[in-house]
Amino acid sequence: MTLSAVSKTIGRIHLRTEQLELYVKERERMLKEQLVGRGITDKRVLDAMLKVPRHNYVTEENLVRAYGDMALEIDCGQTISQPYMVAVMTELLELKETDRVLEIGTGSGYQAAVLSELAKEVYTIERIEQLAKGAMEKFELAGKTNIFVKVSDGTLGLPDCAPYDKIIITAAAPSVPPPLIDQLSSDGGILVAPVGSRHTHRIIKLRKVGDKIEETRHVQCVFVPLIGAFGLDR
Length: 234
Ligand code: SAM
What we know:
The protein has 234 residues and is of the alpha/beta class. It has one domain (3-221): Rossmann fold, CATH 3.40.50.150.
C-alpha cells in the first residue's frame, strides 16, 4: 500500500459523524436485503457484519459502493468478496469463540476482520506483500489484536500453528490443497472453499472427523484464482 493510500485510510477514521451514521444505515440495509433476505440466519454472523465497517476495507474509488451487492476491485488486480459470499462462507464455518481459524487470501482484510469478531484467533495468509501490509495497517488502526498476517503461499498452509479448528480459502482452487486438509483439526474441523475450474466454481464444505472427510456442496460463485504450489499456475 502506498503512503498516500494509508493516509486516506487513516483519514477515513475521522469521517464526519453524518457520514458514519449513513454507513451504519447502509450496513443495516445490506443485512436486511442482501443477507437475511437471502437466507442467512446465524445471528452471530449477522451481528459481526453489522459491526465491521466494510467501507474501511475498500479503495477510495469504491467508497460509494462499499455496501453494494457485489465484489469490488482492490489493489493488485484482486477483489474484496461480495457481502453475501462473506456471510455464506462465514456461516458455513460454524465458528465458536474458542476457534483458531486459518484464512488463505487476506486481500483487503475484510473477511479476516469479520472472522476476528467470532473466533479466538485468525491466521491469514496473503501471497501479495502489498495487500498483506495494507491489511495489517487496517487491523492495527481498528485495534485488532487477534489477527496474524503472513506473506507466503497459502496453499502450503501454516504448519507451525496447526491444527486449525476452521480453515477458509477465499480464492478459487482447482481442488482443496492437501496440506490444508492435513492442518485441519480431526476433531470436527471445518474447511470452506470455492472449488472448481478457473471460471466456474462452487462453495464446498469439508468436515473432518478422525480420518473421515464428509463433503457438502453449496452456492455457485466467482472468485479470483488461488495461485501456488497446490493452486493454479497464474
Ligand atoms: N478475503 C479477501 C477479502 O476479504 O478482501 C478476499 C480475497 S480475494 C477474493 C483472493 C486473495 O487471495 C487475493 O488477495 C490473492 O492475492 C490471494 N491469493 C491467491 N492465491 C494465494 C495463495 N496461494 N496464498 C495466499 N493468498 C493467495
